[in-house]
Every structure is written in C-alpha cells, then in structure tokens.
Amino acid sequence: MARWFQKMLKYSCFVPHVAALLAITLSVGCGTTTAGGDDGDALFFQPPDAKGDVPVVKADVQDTLVTDVALDVPDGVPDGVGDFYETAIDAETDTIDAQDSGPTDVYVPECVTDTTCDDQNLCTVDLCANDTCKHTPIPGCCLQESDCPKAPTCKSAQCVSNTCVNVPVENCCASGVCCDPVKQTTKVAQAPCDVVPIGFEFDCQGSDVWGRKAIQGCDGKQTAACSGNTANYSWTDWGIIGSCPGGSFCQKNPDKTVFPLCSGTPAPAPSCVDAIGCYDADPCTLDTCTNGTCTHALADATALCGTTSVFTQYDCLNGPGGTQAGGSIVTRSQYASCGSAGKCDGKAVWSPWTITTDCLATEKCDVPISTEPGTCALISVCKPGTTCCGADGQYAATGTACGTAVVATEYQCETTGKGSKYTVHDGVAGCSGASALCSAATPSWGNWKAAGTCGYNQLCSLPLADAPPVCTDVCVAGTTCCTGGGDWADQGSKCADALIKSVSKCTSANGVESVMSAQVFPGCTGVDETCSVEPANLNKSAYTLVKQCQSYEKCVQNGDLADCQLNAPCQPGTQCCTADGQFAPLASPCLSTNQQQFSCSNNLPGGAVQVRDVFLGCSGVSTQCSYSPTNYYFSPWVDQTECLPTEACSSPDLTVAECVSLQQCTPGSICCDGNGKFMLQGTKCGPPDVIKTEYKCDGTALGGSILKKESYAACVGTAANCSKLDADLVWEPAVWLTKQSCGPMNYCHVSGPTDPGLCNNTPP
Questions:
Q1: Labelling 288: which of 31, 310, 433, 588 has CA 20 to 30 A away?
Q2: Same domain for 243 and 282
Q3: Nearest alpha-carbon partner for 319 in 329, 327, 308, 311
Q4: Is 540 contained in some domain?
Q5: Does some domain include residue 245?
Q6: Is the pTM of this model over 0.85?
Q7: pLDDT tens-digit readout, 113-138
C-alpha cells in the first residue's frame, strides 16, 4: 500500500481531480495546476522549477502493487479528447521475491510533464498521463490536403491553418443549362443554351434564298440560365432555304429579319429547301419543309410558347447523405405551353430544378420565401460563449487564446545577414479551429520581443525553434566564395575559370543591330562556400560587341545565342543581288556571254580602237538572269589599241574596228612631209638649179635699172611630184631683184621677159 500511495501522490501532480479525490495536499515535489473557469475547459500542468526532479520511488519488498484503481473522468471533457484521463491506472505489478536480497527496484516514469511528450504533430494533443505519453488526434485537424475528406463536386479540399476546408474551384460547375457537366466547366459564350429559335436572318444569292436561325446562347459566365444578350445568340451556318421559281430572282430586303420576295408581278413565293424557309413566327407550330412545300403542324400541347417565365420558385437541396450541411439553393421556372389548340393557353410547364448556389460544408441552405433566392447560412457547431466557440456558434479560429499559462516558446532571427537581431515570443494554449478543444498543440502567440543580437561578422541560425538562436562566423576570409570581409560573396560571383559556355544577345542602337557576347563561369550561391554551376548561380561576364549586322541583316535570338541573319530578298554578293540585299536593277550584269563589241574612240588621227564585254542582264525581280537582248549589260568601253598619229580608227559596225593609215606619201621623200602628207603646191623642191629667169625695167626714166627674178621646180600639192612646168614653178624670192643699175645717164631697155636687157642713153 505504501508504494501505491506514493504512485497516486505522483499522479496527483498531473491530474488535480485525483488530488481532490484523495484530499492530498500537493505542495511538495509538484508543480502548480491551472484550471479553466468551468469543467469544460482543458487543464494545463506547470512542471516543477527544479531540473531533473524525476520521482524515484523505492519499492516495498513486502508489497504487491494494487492494479486497476478506478478514477472518475472530470465533467465537461469532450468525447475523444479526454483520453488522457485514464479510467483505470494500470499500475505494473512488480513481483518481487521477498527472499531476494538483491538491489532495490527503482521506478522511472516515461514522462513527467506534457512538454516531454511533444511529438511535433500539430494534429495531436500531447499529454503525460499515468507516467505515459498520450497522443490524442484532434478532430478535423490536418497537416496536408490528403488528411482531409474528399470534397464535394466543384470544391477542393484544402488544409488551411491545420483545418480542413472545402474551397470552391474556379469556373467549375455541376449543373445548369450553361454547364458542361462532363468537364464541369462553364460553357463558352454563344454556346447553344436552348432549342427554341429566337431569331432569323435571310439573304439572297441569284435565285436562291439563304437563311440562318439563332437560339439563346450562354454568356460564358453563369451556368443556371441562358443569356438574353443578342451578342451571345448561337447562330446556325448560312444555308439555302428556298429557291425562286421560273427563273425569277431573289430580291434582298434591307431588313435581314424579313423574308425576301421573288422578282415578278405578282411576286411568286419561293419553294422551300429548309424548315427555316417556312418560319411563320408562331411558337405553337412546327414549321417543316417537305418536297419544296411548307407545312405548319400544331406543336405538342406541352411545348413552351415563349422564353419568358411566368413564375420562378426557389428551394433547398439537401447536402451529402441528405443532411442540411453543404446543401444547395435550387430554382425552377414556369412557362406557358401551347395547349391542345395551339393557342399558347395550355397548362403551365415547369423547367427542371437547377442549382444556383452550393453551400459550404459549414453552411446550410435557407430559403424562407419560395419566390426569393434565399441564402447559405452558417450552421452552429458549438455553444456560443463556451471555450473555443464564437458568438456565431462557430469554432474559434486556430490559435485563439483560451488559456493563460505559457505552453510554448519560439525564437526567430530577424534577418539572414550578419549582425542579425533575434527575438522571442511565448504562446499560451489556443483553440484548434476545428473543435472546442483548448490545446497546447495550437498555441496563441504573443508579440515578438528582442532577445539578443549576433556579432557584426556572425550569422544567426535557429537549430531549434524553442531554443535561443546560435551566432556563428559567416566564413573564413579568402576562401572560396568568401569575401575579404568574411561574408559570403554575392550570388553569381565568379569562383572558377572553367568556361561553361558563351552566350550572346541582340542589341540595337541608332538603327543598327548588333550581336553582343558574354562568357559564363561557375558562380557562388551567395549563402555558402559552394562554387555552383546551377543556372541561378552562374557568373556572366560583361557583354562585348562581337558583330554588327549589315543593312540587309537583322539580329535573331535563338535560345541563349544570337546571330545576324539575312533580312532581305537575297544574299549580297550573289547573282543579281545588290550590296544591301535587294534584287539588282533590270539589265544589271548577270552572266558573261563571252562576246565583245568594238568601236572607235574618234575618227581623228591618233584615235583608239575600243572594246566592251557583253553580259546577260538581271531580271530586276529575282536573282535570275534575263536572256532578252534588250536587257543585256555592257561593260564600259576601254581602249584596246592606240592608233598611230598617221592612222585613224575605222569601225563599220560593232563587230570590228581597226586603225587605218592616213599617209599620202613616204615621209622624207620629194614633196612629202614628215607626216606623209603632200607638201603644199608651190613648195620649192628638186635640185637648186634655176629653171627659168625673167627680166624687166623698173621704169622708163633715166637712171633706171634692169630687174630680174628666178623660178625653181615646185611641188604640185596633190602628188609626190616636183614639177618644172611653168604653171607649177615657184618664184623665189617673190620680189624683183636688181640685176644692173643703168646709171644716171642711161635708160633701161628690156624687149621681153626672157631678154636680159641693156642700158644706153637712147630713150626707150
């Protein structure tokens, strides 16, 4: 009994209700215990201050431990949560041999405080009960989406603050005239929404009448109803719906909604090809075309004779399993029908129920008045005013404070850089967010408070969240990826010379595109000594100019490489392509014909024979040569042969040209000058002998004189001849010379030109 009493004394430190039952004062060896305002609040144990106060109980060798001691569970503890209140203490039966004189047994419990039972699982309540750790799951708690039950249609189960919630899936639907239930997506705008035609349009092509019809379409947003906007009408394709008879023509009406007429007086009615051509605007007839003839049979009595509802009703659709939770708001509308007489006076017809709103799992449908849509109202899940229950009957948010004792402590580093400050905050027991449980597993945290600062060249790290941070030096200066100041080099700093790759990019300046290139090397991570080749950490050198694109090129980027590519009709330097990449003009040189043409520079002495090459010319619109002679290209004339000064160039046509001599005689010969030209008529030539002499008197007076002049052979001017004929002689000098002076007392007497004459005193 002594050992049982000691063990019960130990348990009284954890379970105050046991202490009350035993009426034992727990002031020695136990911590303090805090209870909530009523029996529904969770209890929290404050462990002893002294470290290592683990109870050690010596066993009585004469004692057999009592088992299955019944304890009452405190009132107000929620079902499934109060497992830590054991209904029976399983006290191990330590069978000890009374005659054994060996060592005394030492009892060491598995746990002493709740904190030692923390399994790091936010979805369990970790308590120390009967020396044993108990990990009770928190109802509705989750760590990840897979912990949550499957969500209903168009909902996604998500774990938010350790609580399972069903979040609506965007653009998802389950029903409705504008919902695609297979894909669970809203139909696109203009998707067909009905079968009743709501509009027609007509047109003409020759004698054919064309038409198309429209029905109401969806707007791409709502799913429960059709769109009344004409922009969302769903139109059929245009097709031939009728034909004008007898060669008459279809006459288009400016109003496309009006059926056209056929030409002629009176205007004949067109024969039908399609039911659209038989439309009579009566919703209670079935308009059909049979063998070119329109028929208008009465529609079924229940057929709708309009698209405007006469009455709309709302109701609730229960949720999964027929429960109110997670239900939906549904609606249906009543329309007039055609009736048996086809007069739109038949019995009203209801449309199918359609879901307009899906309520959340924590809501229920509420439609107080059937003619109004209603709302999704929250369902009370707990008693307002009780622990972890709000005034709206919903569980308080996760982490809402519900206790005062500190149950957890956390530290944090304010920055990841050097010299960081670090702070601390404490947490008291908080609500789970999914039940009325007040637990240390979901603490309510207080404000962060300053706790210390790391050194200037130190980093703040947090090995354990509930222990003060550790300040360590960043790195050793001068090592890989460590700066001289002992800090990690910036991310992307070069840390090796091994070239990984070269990259290039396009740039443009002043209308000129260029290719710039850079080299990529391993780089630092910015957070450690790793010399990394990961893309985010690579070091890239500054870009330098590699190439400027020509005027006919453009820079094209392909991945991380760039290059100049042709941006013109043709490649410069190729046949019939200009330097800027354009087609060469018409008759530009293309291919040689291996032919030449000849001409003269002029027809004067000393001219030149000229030559030029003949080429096929370009077409002007491609890189192809033109074989038309009118498009030939001719190279510039160049001198091929220089003619002598005594020659002149002669070219009867472009096929030949030559130098032709201009000499009339042999230069240096009689009556031929140095240029081979005949000397002028009257030019003295031949031997210097006088050929003929003539005489005359200078007058008849006393004192006169006998005059003479002599002639010599001369050139004729038209041949290389030295002539002695009188007509060709040249007189030299050209003036008369004095042969003899007669003196003052004599007269000159000359009887004829050949008479040498005489002087005497006899008058003539």
A1: 310
A2: yes
A3: 327
A4: yes
A5: yes
A6: no
A7: 887 888 888 788 888 888 889 888 88
